[in-house]
Amino acid sequence: MLGFVKDNLVSLLTELPLEKGKQKAAERIDQEKLRRRVGEQMKKYKEDVFQHIGSAEDFDLENANQYIKEHLFDSVSACFNLDLKWQQEQARRSLMDSVQTAAGVKEGNSTRKSAVNQYVKIFLDIIEAYYLEKVDERDRFLAGKTIEEVERLLKEYISSSHGRIMEAIAYQGSFAEYIDGIQQASDNQKILHYRNKLLKFQGREQELQILRAFLRDEAAISWMAVTGDGGSGKSKLLYQFTDEMEADTEWKTVWLHRDNCQSVLRFNGWAYPCNLLFVVDYAGAVSDQIGRWIEMLDRNRRRPVKIRFVLLEREGIGREHGAEIEPMWYQNLKGFGEQERAVQRREAICFEGAPFLKLEHMDAVSLDKMIRDYASRNGRELDRETRKWILGKAAEIDKKREGVRPLIVLFTADAVMRDREYNKWDIPALIENILRRYEGNKAIRQGGHWRETVCQGREDLFCALEEMLMFATAVGGWKLEDSDELPEVFRASAEKILEMTADELKTFICAVNEDDEYNGVLQPLEPDLIGEFYVLEYWNQRRFQKEYFEKIKEVFWSESYTLPFAIFWERCIQNYCTENRFRVFFENGMERMEPKEDTGVAYDLFNMLLVVLIAYQENVDAEKTLDRLRELSEKREGNEEIAVLYAKGLVNLINMQEEEKAEKTLDRLRELSKKREGNEEIALEYAKGLFNLSNKQGEEKAEKTLDRLRELSEKREGNEEIAVVYAQGLFNLSNKQGEEKGK
């Protein structure tokens, strides 16, 4: 079947009607190279699509080819030559629908429909990336007709397809125009980057099925979150899924950026000619805006038939000793009042009745295939025993109860293939191994892709790149066009890079980003685990330059960068706060990182981050961080928000402590609750503290603790959340009693 499809596609591409200019174009087309290009595409789609479609008789590709040839200068040409991007996209959808009919695909046969759509997509992709470069009249498509003839055919096409293609919306300044103008990131050439197509996507079929069901659901508006640790494959999963969705004519997929999530709120209608799927990476940065948008969509009918949101974040709803814990980003998403009700109404219920899809560990077979593929891409072949050793060592390094993360498996495989001798196998050592290929040997200032190739051996340019890459990674990217607004501390490095000619600069940025397309942005160093390590190590090397560190800290906590930096710093806490080499940045309540008190929002975010830090630290360090949080709370006596954060910090510490110490910490929480008698949020945290302590205790002590929780619940009769915590405590107590009877 695959060979049949491949032959038909090659036949179509080599027999396109070229009439005028045919001989010249044909001379330039290397048919063997074209066949190889088609072969590469066929290999990619073999397992994804074509193995499921049965025999060649299931649809008529010869008729499909004939239709494409006959409509080359209207339907196909429109995919490239209509003036507006949205018109081109609509033309592609229309072409796919028409080719399905020509191929005899019956209505409702989604498998055949997807296969034909993929066939058309491959054809259009190859035309755009390979074929159009081989003829002179590129803008007029294949040099097959005169400009006048093509323009006439396009006008006829537009006129005949008006009802279907030119939707009755005022496009200029509309939401549709805005959505079509959002630039989507191109494929990346870094083999460890989630947007690369060098490595075949492995496993996760269950998760893909859940995402497909999420789109099929009849709900008009719905959202879900894909959660998991850094390196677990969240972005890779959605990249694979959205790539698959490109061939679905009923949906348009858009990865939203931070500034987009604010801009969409200015519209009073969100009409679009097809369904919309929005993917939001690092959703915590914009969860409040997404929540407000969901509320606005909920009461507005000027929108597509279906809108879906997939939010990517590290934490979902968790449980601490049985208590349900909501992450900060989810609380911001819900907000309060009508926004909270709308967000909860629009939660996805197509899987287990919950909107959170936590990525489980990948199966060993898929991980083994991933190692083989990675080795093959690096020109190596690893035997079965070596691959098995890599999986075992990666699990040992990762120390995750849920299973080893795919990215750590690739880090380990990379180290093995580089034949390095390690005295210590851990994540920092593996990342250093990877970064050394880019930075070279810093001690002797030699080697490395960035220094020798990208910077052509210029040490001054290399140093400038290192600093700006640190900046870009910490704040989510450096837009070169905004360089006039850069803080003074980064100005010299920026100017060193910007003194290049325009062409040199494009080549330079693309080389660093390892991206084929230039978008005027120096991207953060990814994957996140590598980027976070890079920034922390850069700071570590300059930690004794106190004046410099104070300057960059002031920049990162300034209004322009506060939120993206806080999100970046939270990831650093999660991954590196217990790493000895970076201890200086996290010890004593992160005193080294503390912003100036007069920086408003930054100071509040810093206090939130202290609460996060407590949850990841060892007991002794966590107690010091809590002391710092208490000091800040007392310093801002009238600030209820910091008092709530202090209460949350106490709860986090109780979770980590043994029973005796937890009882003493609970006493501090009780005193705080008394002091802030009217604060319902602190009362709730006290309830959680009682609940968590009861889970550490034996039956007799737990009963007494729950009596205190009952009294609190009765006192706060209108607080349903406290009542729920009390009910959970009773349930857990009954389980303990059952266990005692069983003994």
From TrEMBL:
Stretches assigned to the Novel STAND NTPase domain: 206-322
SUPFAM superfamilies assigned to the protein according to its UniProt record, in alphabetical order: P-loop containing nucleoside triphosphate hydrolases
Coiled-coil parts of chain: 655-715
GO MF term list: ATP binding
Keyword terms, alphabetized: ATP-binding, Coiled coil, Nucleotide-binding
Protein name: ATP-binding protein
